[in-house]
Amino acid sequence: MTAKSRLTKGVEFLYVLVKSSLFFWGTLIKMAGIYGWVSAQEKTMYAVDHPEAVHEGLSRITENLGKAKLWEKTLSVGIFLSFAGVIGTLVWGVGSSLSVLFLVASGILLLFLLLLTTNFLVTPKAGLDFATYSYLVLSQTLRPSLWNGFVVANFVFWALLLPISPLLFFLVAPGGVFYLLKKGYQKLLELKGQTHDSY
């Protein structure tokens, strides 16, 4: 591969990350920043899994994913409140043991809900009813595993970019998060001897 072709691929990859990230924030804003966290994650994951679709209208491409369901909105509210708890505590300052405890609890809850959402998005439903499917996903989320550790580390890694460069975080973090999740999930399936199907 020549230096020019590597540069071209690098620019295209950055374009996919930036456009996917902007699509994430746009979806979130469209749903008032409260109810759209799960929907935004689902659509962004779809976008990075279909880079060819990024060059088209993402809103049109992701129409087949359907509207957000009640459980998605409920989970989104939980993510929003825990995220607001983390940001609010940091903004007002960590000046007491109670505020530290609240910050840690909000952070752990946020990571748990993000992990739960990710497992919902990658776990095949395979004709299961919602109750059985939810139990399966919840048990996977609560069970210590290499995949769960990878998902949490991925979110923490990109979150550390926020205080370093808020602009870079805004432009590439959502796309970067779901690109790594895509690659990690593909590797997990390879280890299990399975093939990767698009989300």
Overview of this structure, please?
By secondary structure, the protein is an all-alpha fold. The protein is 78% helix and 0% strand. The protein has ten helices and no strands. It has helices spanning 3-30, 37-49, 51-54, 58-61, 70-92, 97-122, 130-142, 146-159, 161-164, 166-191. Helix 2 crosses helix 10 (166-191), helix 6 crosses helix 8 (146-159) and helix 8 (146-159) runs antiparallel to helix 10 (166-191). The longest helix has 28 residues, at 3-30. The chain is globular and about 55 Å long. It starts with a helix and ends in an 8-residue tail after the last helix. The mean pLDDT is 81.
Large-scale geometry: globular
Helix share, percent = over 70%
Using DSSP, what is the number of strands?
Answer: 0
Mean pLDDT: 81
**Topology order in helix (H) and strand (E) letters:** HHHHHHHHHH
Derived structural class: mainly alpha
The low-confidence parts are: none
Distance between the termini: 30 Å
User: How many helices?
Assistant: 10
Calculate Rg over CA atoms. 18 Å
Largest sheet: none
Question: What labels describe this entry?
Answer:
199 residues; mainly alpha
What's this model, at a glance?
The chain is mainly α. Helices cover 78% and strands 0% of the residues.
